[in-house]
Write a structure and sequence with these properties.
Strand content: 15-25%
Strand order of the largest sheet: 2-3-1-4-8
Oligomer: single chain
CATH topology of one domain: Rossmann fold
Number of helices: 9
Largest sheet: 5 strands, parallel
Number of strands: 8
Order of helices and strands: EHEHHHEHEHEEEHHEH
Bound molecules: BIS(adenosine)-5'-pentaphosphate, magnesium ion
CATH class of one domain: Alpha Beta
Distance between the termini: 11 Å
CATH superfamily of one domain: P-loop containing nucleotide triphosphate hydrolases
Helix content: 40-55%
Length: 213
């Protein structure tokens, strides 16, 4: 099962992708998480990506496509995966389609988690992420048991560098310009499914499970 999560920044792609990965025992592949791990490790890729991410811009396709194709070529991805944050541009989607076609394969579902812009800034300013394991919370909607402490590993929770309101507005603008066209792209391929991302996290997941079966 090969699944793509689409949706605006903060729509809940990561939240739902983690739950899908767990239920269906497939890897959760997030380009954002890969970049953040590289920033933390101070790698060359991380330093390059950070310049764009801090301004809410997309990391150039040349950098992004390669790391994604390398990741999905791993043994653990052979029976499927859930992609979160990739593709984000039409050229990225085309590269992915071609790479899969070469193996006689295709994407099975592109799930658009739909959330209006009005809800997004609030979601982002309340998001907290674990510095160690990357688990995410929301201070109001999905709070950790102890304030600022990760339920899963006990490490500190922080606000992501790119979740400042100015940066979020820029990410939203870029989403509408460059990523939203993917909705038409995957509709034409007959694999687009839309879920209402404003519902409670568990209800959004139930809707996704009813699509995936
Ligand atoms: P990335 O990490 O992918 O960020 P994003 O798309 O902006 O999305 P987010 O991770 O911010 O949101 P999400 O949809 O995962 O929401 P979440 O589940 O956390 O990318 C970061 C940057 O990396 C990009 O800006 C770009 O620079 C670069 N990049 C990455 N991939 C790239 C690519 N392919 N090409 C080029 N550049 C790339 O939820 C948000 C909050 O809401 C959380 O607090 C959560 O707890 C809460 N929440 C979730 N669901 C609900 C619900 N149903 N109700 C209430 N609250 C909820
Ligand atoms: Mg995410």
């Amino acid at each position: 099962m090969k699944i793509i999560m689409l949706g605006a920044p903060g729509a809940g792609k990561g939240t739902q992708a983690k739950m899908i990965a767990e239920k269906y025992s497939i890897p959760h592949v997030s380009t954002g998480d890969i970049f953040r791990a590289n920033i933390k490790g101070q790698t060359h890729l991380g330093m390059e990506a950070k310049k764009y991410m801090d301004e809410g811009k997309l990391v150039p396709d040349e950098l992004t496509v390669k790391i994604l194709l390398d990741r999905v070529a791993n043994e653990d991805c052979k029976d499927g995966y859930v992609l979160d944050g990739f593709p984000r541009t039409i050229p990225q989607a085309e590269v992915l389609t071609e790479a899969l076609e070469k193996m006689g394969d295709k994407i099975d579902y592109a799930i658009d988690v739909a959330v209006p812009d009005e809800n997004i800034v609030n979601r982002m300013s309340g998001r907290r992420a674990c510095v160690n394991c990357g688990a995410t919370y929301h201070i109001v909607h999905i709070p950790p048991k102890t304030e600022n402490i990760c339920d899963k590993c006990g490490s500190e929770l922080i606000l992501r560098d790119d979740d400042k309101p100015e940066t979020v507005l820029n990410r939203l603008k870029i989403y509408h310009e460059q990523t939203q066209p993917l909705i038409d792209y995957y509709t034409e391929k007959g694999v687009l499914k839309t879920v209402d991302g404003t519902k409670d996290m568990k209800d959004v997941f139930a809707d996704i499970v009813s699509i995936l079966g």
